[in-house]
Amino acid sequence: MKQFSFYRFICSVRPLCVAYETLRWLWHKVFFFVHTRTPVWYQFDKKQVLGAPAKETLPFDAQWYRIKRPLYRHEHVYYDFEKALSVNPNVKGLALIFFMGIGDYLYTTPMLEALKKKYPQLPFYGYVGADFDRNNSPLVGKLLQTNPNVEKVFYFKGYRHPLIWKNYNYQDAFKDIPEGFLAVPVYYDYSIHVEHRVKSLFETFGLPVPQQVPAPKMYFPTKPAVVVQEYLDNILQRADGKKGIVFLQLDSRGSNYVYPHLKQLAQLLMADGYFVMSVTKGGPLDEPNYCEVDIKKFAINETWHLLTLLKAQMPVYVIAVNSVFWAASAGLGLPNLGLQHWIDKKVHNLWYPNIEVVTDYIYPLLPREKQIFAPAESYTRHNKKIIDYDPQWVFGWFKEKFGVSNIV
Question: Is 346 left (phi over 0), alpha (psi -120 to 50) or beta?
Answer without folding.
Answer: alpha
